[in-house]
Each structure stands twice: as structure tokens, then as C-alpha cells.
């Protein structure tokens, strides 16, 4: 359980760096294990590691996995989920840069999303990185009825007066990071 929470952000980062969401999307239909292994230019003999990796991510809601039979052999296919659709490049809702940023510094323990609204981005970050303290900072009237959970919290205030302390400050527009400043 602990190891799984630790591995999740790392595997998510690798999946983005390997371009797996884009490979599946460009394939236009669920991709088989052998097709994915070939697209990744990995020796077929190492396909079992790719399958283990994809199974872990599927277990964490990043991909859908289907294990069936075709003719007399096992056929494994992978598809995108709503979560991995948010990692597709070239879309205006791409969270890939956010994930790569969040995994870039292992010593980063907290972020504050200034003008974070109702916390759409922060909730995604909180789900992917449950150990990271995630503060959404917005005007008091915007956050007054919003409740956080675990490491997600909502703080009301005026950014022109002061903002909560955190290792990094982000400003987002939709799911694009417009500004990052390191408080450390
Ligand atoms: C363009 S929206 C961006 C919202 C969110 N980051 C997003 O992309 O969906 C700007 C946000 O800044 C907040 N805001 C405006 N003035 C502010 C201030 N003085 N202090 C804190 N937040 C403020 C607004 O309430 C609004 O939620």
C-alpha cells in the first residue's frame, strides 16, 4: 500500500516520458501488448515488464486493461481512461507538464495553487500525489464552502496581501501552468 503510493507518481512520470497516452490515442483503438511493445521499441522478450507496468497503472485508474482470448492465445489490450486523456499532448487540458513538474523535485512537499478556483487542478494533483500538501488559495467567497481532504485544503485570502507558504507556488489557467515560483 505504502510502496504503491510511492511508485504511482514515478510510474505516471515514466508513462508520460515514454509517450504512452499519445501512443494509445494515435492508435485509434485499444492497443495490444505486442503493438505497444513495438511502438516503444522495446525487445519483445521484455514485453512482460511492459505488461506489469501497465497493469500497475491500470490498477491506479490511469489505463484500462482487457485480458481476453483470441483464437487460442491470450490477447491483452490497453485503452485510455478519463485520467490518461488528461495527459494527451496538444490538448488544451493537458496535465502532463503538471505531473512532470510535480515529480521534478523529490524534496518538494507542498504547493499552493494561487487563484486556484474550486481546485480542479489541485484535486488531480492530490489524487496523483497524495503525499504532497496541496493548498488552493483563492478569494474567501470562492473557497468558503469548499472542503478539502487528506492533503488538500482550501485557503481564502487576497493574493495581493499575502499567500500561504509552500515549497512551490503555481498559477494555473485551465490545466496549463502559467507560472511556477519556488518558495524554498
Ligand atoms: C482565471 S481564474 C483561474 C482559476 C483556476 N486557476 C483555473 O484555471 O480554473 C482566476 C482566479 O483567481 C482568483 N482571484 C482573483 N483575484 C484574486 C485575489 N486577489 N486573491 C486570490 N485569488 C484571486 C479568482 O477568484 C479566480 O478563481
Automatic annotation (TrEMBL):
Residues 105-171 form the O-methyltransferase C-terminal domain. It comes from the Eukaryota. Residues 4-89 form the O-methyltransferase dimerisation domain. GO terms for molecular function: O-methyltransferase activity; protein dimerization activity; S-adenosylmethionine-dependent methyltransferase activity. GO terms for biological process: methylation. Keywords: Methyltransferase, S-adenosyl-L-methionine, Transferase. It holds the Pfam family Dimerisation. InterPro entries: COMT-like, COMT_C, COMT_dimerisation, SAM-dependent_MTases_sf, WH-like_DNA-bd_sf, WH_DNA-bd_sf. This is Isoflavone-7-O-methyltransferase 8.
Amino acid at each position: 500500500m505504502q510502496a504503491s503510493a510511492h511508485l504511482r507518481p514515478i510510474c505516471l512520470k515514466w508513462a508520460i516520458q515514454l509517450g504512452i497516452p499519445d501512443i494509445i490515442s494515435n492508435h485509434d483503438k485499444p492497443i495490444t501488448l505486442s503493438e505497444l511493445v513495438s511502438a516503444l521499441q522495446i525487445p519483445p522478450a521484455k514485453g512482460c515488464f511492459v505488461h506489469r507496468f501497465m497493469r500497475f497503472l491500470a490498477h491506479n485508474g490511469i489505463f484500462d486493461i482487457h485480458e481476453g482470448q483470441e483464437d487460442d492465445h491470450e490477447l491483452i489490450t490497453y485503452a485510455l481512461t478519463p485520467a490518461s486523456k488528461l495527459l494527451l499532448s496538444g490538448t488544451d487540458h493537458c496535465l502532463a507538464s503538471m505531473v512532470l513538474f510535480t515529480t521534478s523535485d523529490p524534496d518538494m512537499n507542498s504547493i499552493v495553487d494561487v487563484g486556484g478556483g474550486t481546485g480542479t487542478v489541485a484535486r488531480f494533483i492530490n489524487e496523483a500525489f497524495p503525499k504532497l500538501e496541496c493548498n488552493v488559495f483563492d478569494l474567501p467567497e470562492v473557497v468558503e464552502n469548499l472542503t478539502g481532504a487528506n492533503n488538500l485544503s482550501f485557503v481564502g485570502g487576497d493574493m495581493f496581501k499575502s499567500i500561504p507558504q509552500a515549497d512551490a507556488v503555481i498559477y494555473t489557467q485551465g490545466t496549463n501552468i502559467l507560472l511556477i515560483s519556488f518558495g524554498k
